[in-house]
Amino acid sequence: MYWTSPRYCGLTGIIRQAGRLARLLLCVSLVFSLMPPQLAAASRIKDVVDFEGVRNNMLIGYGLVVGLNGTGDSLRNAPFTRQSLESMLERLGVNTRGATLNTNNIAAVMVTANLPPFAAQGTNVDVAISAMGDAKSLRGGILLVTPLMGADSEVYAVAQGPVSVGGFSGGGQGAKVVKGVPTNGKIANGAIVERSIDFALASMSEIKLSLRNPDFTTAQRIATAINGRMGSRIAFMIDPSTVNMTLPANYGGGIVSLITDVEQLQITPDQPATVVIDEASGIIVMGKDVRINTVAIAQGNLTIRVTETPQVSQPAPFSQGGTTQVVPRTNLEIDQSEDKKLTVLKDGVSLEDLVNGLNALGIGPSDMISILQAIKASGALQAEIEVM
């Protein structure tokens, strides 16, 4: 009979639990390593396409904001504000034609909103307010009843309510402080939908899917995924931006149910190699598929710095006829950046190699933009350059 201490038994249990945990982690790691690489980059079809007819509609209107604390339009410089004020008062039974109006507590504004798809009558939507005249701020103002029209000049919503402004302005004769844009504001749920847009989606027997980023490969993958899910060829690619989908004859539901089933399918979007450049801000965005052929890059700048240090020449003490003169002194410095070296980027390098090679030259964003454009002009950059 062997005697074992409790301390030894507890240590053995801990070791066994640690072994089981290690085997579990190994199994999980093996499963993730065997997963196809495209699964990690997959996206739902609903995130890469727009369905035909399911879209927002833009609305616009002209209105007045009242109750401003002396920050509204000056009626002398904004005649449209004066005319709008007189017309509004006439509709309310107040005649001000020919009278002298001198108020700066009112501002003429443009009101914009997006009417969501299938918005029913009585639904509330957000509106954006923008000053038209010389108003300094819309803070504290209230938008009066403003009809919002669509592109067909029909009224679809009516907006009214207190304006919420994120920025502010203030100051006096010697200084002024402005934060944000105080002449823009919003009204959350400030418009009520008075008329819905007729669109009979449920009665359709086919629908088109519009790709947000047109691409032949992505469109074909969408059609293949839909056909594989439904077991028949109900979807086909029309062009890089459109996939047509038909309601199967043996499908239990309508087109709305079909869209619900289809939009959850996973596909891997493809995209061409693109380099996007914003020269104004110096921003460069490069896709992962950007490749370049073998190319040698050297970058150097010629900098000339001129410094003027004028000196004063005084005449000798007690001299007769001497005058004080200012003598110019010019210091000239020339920097040819001779320490810059030639860097060779080999054939088929990736985005990471390209960035590392350019960073090795100590190149900033502005110079990198010129280098990328030069590489593209030489035919070595296998990507499209889009300049914003």
Keywords:
388 residues, alpha+beta, 3 domains, 6-stranded antiparallel beta barrel, 4-stranded antiparallel β-sheet, 7 helices, 25 strands, 33% strand, flat
Which word captures the global form? Answer: flat
Q: Regions with pLDDT < 50 over 5+ consecutive residues?
A: 1-12, 24-40
> What is the overall pLDDT average?
79
The percent range for helix content is 10-25%
Tell me the domain tally: 3
Terminal CA distance = 85 Å
Strand order of the largest sheet: 3-4-5-10-7-6
Return the structural class.
alpha+beta
Number of strands: 25
Descriptive account of the structure:
It is a single chain. The protein has 388 residues and is α+β, with helices and mostly antiparallel strands. It has three domains: 57-193, no CATH class; 206-267; 275-313 and 326-387, no CATH class. The protein contains seven helices and 25 strands. It has helices at 6-34, 37-40, 79-91, 216-230, 255-262, 351-360, 365-378, and strands at 43-44, 49-51, 57-66, 106-115, 124-131, 142-149, 155-162, 168-171, 176-179, 184-193, 206-211, 235-239, 242-246, 266-267, 274-278, 283-286, 291-292, 295-298, 303-308, 311-313, 325-327, 330-335, 342-345, 381-382, 384-387. The strands form nine sheets. It has a six-stranded antiparallel barrel with strand order 3-4-5-10-7-6. It is flat. 20% of the residues are buried.
